[in-house]
Structures are given as C-alpha cells and as structure tokens.
Amino acid sequence: MRIRKLTGALAAGAALLAALLLPAPARAAAPASPAVAYTNPLVNQRADPHIFKHTDGYYYLTATVPEYDRIVLRRATTIQGLSTAPETVIWTKHATGDMGAHIWAPEIHFIDGKWYVYFAAGRADDVWKIRMYALESSAANPLTGGWTEKGRIATPMDSFALDATTFVVNGVRYLSWAQKDPAIDTNSNVYLARMANPWTITGTPVRLTVPTYGWETAGHKVNEGPAVIQRGGKVFMSYSASATDSNYCLGLLTASATANLLDPAAWKKNPAPVFTSNTATGQYGPGHNSFTTSEDGRSDVLVYHDRNYKDITGDPLKDPNRRTRVQKLYWNADGTPNFGIPVADGATPRRLSSANFPDHYIRHWEYRGKLEANVTNLADSQFRTVTGLAGSGTVSLESANLPGYYLRHRNGEVWVERNDGTTAFKGSASFHQRPGLADPAGVSYEAYTAPGQYVRHFDFLLRLQGAGTTQAKQDATFHQQ
C-alpha cells in the first residue's frame, strides 16, 4: 500500500494513520446501515404520524386528520407503500360527552398479543378538556378487527393531557405523555410513569422536562409528543417544543438504560434543538415524531410532520397542511442520534462512505469536496441522486443542505457549486454511476465529459482521476448510506 501524506492536527493524523494500517478486508467492509430510498411527503394532511413495524411483515400508520374527528389506520409492506395504501377509519368521535372533540395524536402499539391505540380527545361540550384514552383490539389485522374503548388513562392531575406513548426498557413498560401542571406557568411538560397494564399507569409519575429555553417557548411554552429510541445502552427521548407553526422543533433527552428512569436527574436535556425548520429545503415546523426501522431492519427511520411553507393565516391548528414525512436517522461516532435537517421534498438524500475508509464520508467544506470522518453537521455529507443534468443516462449529486448545488469537477478537482444552467456546468456535474470498481456492492462515478476518469479521494480531497490501479479503484469506490 502506498503511503499517503497525513494532514491536519496531530490527533487527526494519528487516527488516519491507524486507519491506513488496518487490514484491507476490514476497511473495505460494506456499511452496516445501507441507504434507504423514500420520497417525501409520504402522506399529505396527516399530522403527528406514528408508524409501527410489526412482526406480520406490515408497517402500520396512524396520524391526526385535520378534521380532528376520527382515527385512521393504513398498512403496507413497505414504508413508501403507506403513501398509497387504503385508509380505514377504525374509530369515530362521540357525539356527546368525553371523546367528543379534538381527536389528536393517535399511536398504535402491539402489546402482549393485542393492539392498542392511544389518543387524546376533548369533550363535545368542552373541546379543550383534553385527556388521554386507549382502544384495544385482539384482531390479527387491526384494520378489520373491532375495537374496545378501554377508557381514560388516568393521571394524578386532572388537567390537559395528550400524546401518550409507551416503551419498554429492561423488561419494564413505561408510559410517557405531555400534561399541563396548573401550578406552573407552562402549557405542557413531559411526564413518565410505569404501567400496570397497557391502559393504566402505576406509582407516582415524574416530570422529565419543562419548557425553559427560548426554542421551547416560542409562541407557547410547550414540551409534548415524546418518542423513544434505544441504542448502545442509552435511552433517547425526543419531544416537540414551542407553538405548532414554524417555531415547532424537536428537543432531546438522554438517559442510561441502566439508570432509574423515574429519577428526573437521570435524564440530560440537550441545550439546543436537534431538528428545526430549514429555509433552504423549504421545510417548516418539523415535529411530533416517531421512530421506525427500514425494511431490511438495518437503518433507523425518523417519522415526523411539517409544512412546506412558513407563513400561516390564522390559528396553526386550523391549517390542515401538515404532512407525514420520513428520512433516515443517522448516528454520531459518540453514539448519539443525528437528526440532520428536514430534507427537501422528493427523493431522500444519501451519504457516501469511502470503501477503504468506511468511517469517512464525502462532504463539502467551503464548497470543496473532501473525505472526512465524524461529520456532525450531517447535511454537509448528504447528497440526493437525481437525473443527470446532462441527461444521457447520467446522474448528478445534489447537496442536501444547498439545493441547486451539485458535485462537479473542474481542473481535476471536485467542488459543490450552484448550477448556472450552462452546458459546461451540466456536463461537469453529470456522472455515469457504475458498480464499485473495488466492490460491486458500492458505486463509482465516471465523469460524463471525461470517460475513464472517476471521482476519487487523494489526501482526503476529492479529485477526478483515472482508476487503473488497485489503490485507485479503492479510492474511487463508495457505499451509499
């Protein structure tokens, strides 16, 4: 193997040298979490989406409908298939009394051989007297089976309560939800309790988070919509904050899976939001999320709603256009989730990891294409594969956080630059996507305007060069993630 010049700080150089000394088979391994391919939005006018992947081979989707009057459910064998799957009304609001208005945020779970749907509802004669309720079905197919009302999920405080979710850590089932405490000046806070059965909590609930940061109190003082994902001995709880307009965003709590989760001190709140509106991609108010896994079970998928415009006329709750969206959830080197940005509508972007440096990704830095590890600004390393600007069976790689900017070569270097509409630019930003030169499971990019020349890394910068040697083939091979 030829020796490369190591650049950067001494620590970074040592890490790169260690990577170079790894045996080739270990460095050329295919990614453990391959690319997923979805198209957004998944479903229009469906807010607070919850997707549950069941052992029967189906994904189940439920969400808030803009009329706030019913609970709907659809299923498909793929996540994208939910987009066009028939939708069934499994329950309708009561004409009078409890459960008669504001049917919000349903979630579907399969517990001990039965289906449960948690949801929030107001009274027909007091629409803001919102409490949490549960439905149960023993049918194999919850779209066709009957549902039994298990009644209200009671909490010690008889106050505004919504967004119930459930999860299990170390064999213990918990319920988390949002509720208003009349004793403090907030709209809602996030709580946690153990469960005696799927519709009953037990013991004394604890309050995990109160909205205090500016990003949690814009418009309204809100912490709501908890959702849990576990990885590497950690429990991560995302939650939504602020008003349901463009200020809506996601925060994150973290605890050790071995900690006493009913001790609020066991949870650490991230001081900054982890998922926010993005003007460049045209996505506003992302929030009320859930998590699922990809069809092959190897990637985590973030499910959420947002709008594709910022300005709303009147009450945001009366605006029907929150859409269900999905995109891959990535993980940082330290084991924390990286939500990235709400990606543009259309095909979801991917990352491109080096075949011979699997922890290094193509990214742009000051518009220069390079290879780098630990890219915590995730969107710098995400590119959408689109029809080549030059056509003729080519592809172009569009930046996720700079829509309209593409990887292109000039003077033997690879940059991310804005499409100026010229024939020269379109040609230099178009590539023939080939099976990986060093690994057919990967991809290599041959220049449309320079046959035999490939995008490759050299000294961790992207260049356009020939790939006639074994080393060059490795340098020009990438895995989509």
UniProtKB/TrEMBL annotation:
Family of this protein: Belongs to the glycosyl hydrolase 43 family.
Keywords: Glycosidase, Hydrolase, Signal
Organism: Streptomyces enissocaesilis
Alphabetical list of SUPFAM superfamilies matching this protein: AbfB domain, Arabinanase/levansucrase/invertase
Annotated TM spans: none
Protein name: Alpha-L-arabinofuranosidase B arabinose-binding domain-containing protein
Residue ranges occupied by any Alpha-L-arabinofuranosidase B arabinose-binding domain in the UniProt entry: 351-479
Signal sequence region: 1-28
InterPro entries, per database record: AbfB_ABD, AbfB_ABD_sf, Glyco_hydro_43, Glyco_hydro_beta-prop_sf
